[in-house]
Every structure is written in structure tokens, then in C-alpha cells.
Amino acid sequence: MPTELEIIEIRVQAALDVYSNMDPPNAALATRLYGAPPDRVYRRLKGIQSKMERKGSNRKLSDY
């Protein structure tokens, strides 16, 4: 069974798919259609990854 975060991420991805096919693009309408959190959809549109896709914190900047 998917967790709540995974369900929300599925809604965000669905809203982004609809947004990419809209003419003209309307992010607010896409978020309302799928019940996705608007702030997350806007962050994905700006290219910011989800917490599940990001690397962990407190890591070395480079490996030697």
C-alpha cells in the first residue's frame, strides 16, 4: 500500500502531465483537477526535486 507521500506525489505527477498538455498552460487549474498541493506543483515546474528523489543531507561534497 503506498504511503501518503507517495499518493501526493502521484497526484503532483498527474497534474504536471496535464499541465504539459494544456493550451495555454494553467498550473492552478491542473492542481485543482487532481487535488495536488499547489506549492509542490510550482516547485516541480521550477525544477526542484521531491524529497524522495533528492540525495540525503550531511554528505561529503565530493569523494576522494
Relative helix content: 40-55%
Mean pLDDT: 87
Order of helices and strands: HHH
Total number of beta strands: 0
Give the helix tally: 3
Main sheet characteristics: none
How much beta, percentage-wise? Answer: under 5%
Structural class: mainly alpha
Report the end-to-end length measured between terminal Cα atoms. 40 Å
Describe the structure.
The chain has 64 residues and is mostly helical. The protein has a domain at 4-45. Helix content is 53%, strand content 0%. It has 3 helices and no strands. It has helices at 4-21, 27-34, 38-45. The longest helix has 18 residues, at 4-21. The chain is elongated, with a radius of gyration of 14 Å.
In short:
The chain is an all-alpha fold and 64 residues long. It has a domain at 4-45. It is built from three helices and no strands.
Which structural traits does this protein have?
mainly alpha, single chain, 64 residues
